[in-house]
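Dear support,

I submitted the protein below through the web form. The confirmation email said the job was done, but the results page showed an empty box. After a refresh the structure appeared. I'm attaching both so you can tell me whether what I see now is the final result or a partial one.
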Amino acid sequence: MSPRSGERTDSDRLRARLKVVRSSATVLRHLRRRSSRFVRSPLTPLERSLVARRFGADALDRSLRRLARASERIRSLARQTESELARATGRTSAELGERVRAFYGRLASHVREIDDDLDRLEAIDRFLSERPAIDPARPTVVVAGFPNVGKSSLVARLSSARPEVAPYPFTTRSLQVGHADLGFDRLQVVDTPGLLGRADRTNPVEDEALVAVEHAATIVVFVIDPTESCGYPLAEQERLLETFRRLRPNVPIVEVETKSDVRRRPSGRLSVSAVTGEGIPELVARIEREIAAQPRPPPPPVDHDGATD
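What the results page shows now:
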């Protein structure tokens, strides 16, 4: 073999190795991007429960594990192929090309095995990005009740949220969050999709309301429509309220009757009107008292330089 031929073989081997390095690095970078959202910012209990109800209890963790295993296999394949190419003295350009194509085939096979997981992670990421961020360290008022009882109008009165309001059920299709300053802290006000009070089944819209109450609520403002214009009799609304009491016995429930500008009755509950503003100052004061009575989380630790961790 002439010196020039040997130089060409070395150059071919170097190009082949670079193809392996670059292609494997590109794929690994793509896999990291798909999983980084969940690794960089671990899900809160609320987010984890929302994902579990929508995609399955172990769906997220299972897909992340499969991506991690696939990434390790790709790294191992790339190291093995690079080592083989480094030792492939005397191989022709065609033989080196065949070895690189074999690597591409195995690389593609590893990626195909996790196609469903990549799609699932993308869907979960999109699902969470469409939901508002709820800070678990802040006091949170969750507004709940049947569809069309006036929850969204009330949230708009209480906070910075501007939810869509219309006279038909399930206008609120997912959680919406507003904020209010009640003189002691920045308060989160969560508008939930309506609940239908069915013991045997819930739909995905209702699931989000239940998860918000379970994981986010410092207190619950339960809204009852005494006019029954929401389409649900008072007896059904009362039964749903009892269900909430059983589900979250340790969470204070403030019971509110809306649409007081249309109908008022001697129920002993606070009557409010999102149209006229009647009862809103009293409701704010009640919320403030209830939250002030709740135990506050301890402050974050401070290091010796006075900075929080």
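Response: this is the final, complete result; the empty box was a page-load delay. The chain has two domains: 8-129, 140-292.
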